[in-house]
Amino acid sequence: MNNHHWTHLKLDHSIEEMGEISYSLIERLYPLCRSITGEGTLETLKILNENFDLNIKCVATGTQVFDWNIPKEWNIREAYIESLSGKKIIDFKHSNLHVVSYSYPVDKVVPLAELEKHLHSIPEHPDWIPYRTAYYNETWGFCLSEKQRQTLQDEHYRVCIDSDLKDGHLHYGDYFIPGESRDEFLIFTHICHPSLCNDNLSGIAIATQLAKVLSSQTSLNKSYRFVFAPATIGSITWLHQNQDSLHNIRAGLVLAVAGDAGPLTYKKNRNKECYTDQLVEHVLAANGRPYKTVAFSPYGYDERQFCSPGINLPIGSLMRTPNGCYPEYHTSADNLGLVQPEYLADTISAYLDVINIFENNAIFLNQSPFGEPQLGKRGLYRKTGGENIERSILAKLWVLNLSDGEHSLLEIAERANMRFSEIQVAAEELYSTDLLELTT
Amino acid sequence: MNNHHWTHLKLDHSIEEMGEISYSLIERLYPLCRSITGEGTLETLKILNENFDLNIKCVATGTQVFDWNIPKEWNIREAYIESLSGKKIIDFKHSNLHVVSYSYPVDKVVPLAELEKHLHSIPEHPDWIPYRTAYYNETWGFCLSEKQRQTLQDEHYRVCIDSDLKDGHLHYGDYFIPGESRDEFLIFTHICHPSLCNDNLSGIAIATQLAKVLSSQTSLNKSYRFVFAPATIGSITWLHQNQDSLHNIRAGLVLAVAGDAGPLTYKKNRNKECYTDQLVEHVLAANGRPYKTVAFSPYGYDERQFCSPGINLPIGSLMRTPNGCYPEYHTSADNLGLVQPEYLADTISAYLDVINIFENNAIFLNQSPFGEPQLGKRGLYRKTGGENIERSILAKLWVLNLSDGEHSLLEIAERANMRFSEIQVAAEELYSTDLLELTT
Amino acid sequence: MNNHHWTHLKLDHSIEEMGEISYSLIERLYPLCRSITGEGTLETLKILNENFDLNIKCVATGTQVFDWNIPKEWNIREAYIESLSGKKIIDFKHSNLHVVSYSYPVDKVVPLAELEKHLHSIPEHPDWIPYRTAYYNETWGFCLSEKQRQTLQDEHYRVCIDSDLKDGHLHYGDYFIPGESRDEFLIFTHICHPSLCNDNLSGIAIATQLAKVLSSQTSLNKSYRFVFAPATIGSITWLHQNQDSLHNIRAGLVLAVAGDAGPLTYKKNRNKECYTDQLVEHVLAANGRPYKTVAFSPYGYDERQFCSPGINLPIGSLMRTPNGCYPEYHTSADNLGLVQPEYLADTISAYLDVINIFENNAIFLNQSPFGEPQLGKRGLYRKTGGENIERSILAKLWVLNLSDGEHSLLEIAERANMRFSEIQVAAEELYSTDLLELTT
Question: ipTM > 0.85?
Answer without folding.
Answer: yes
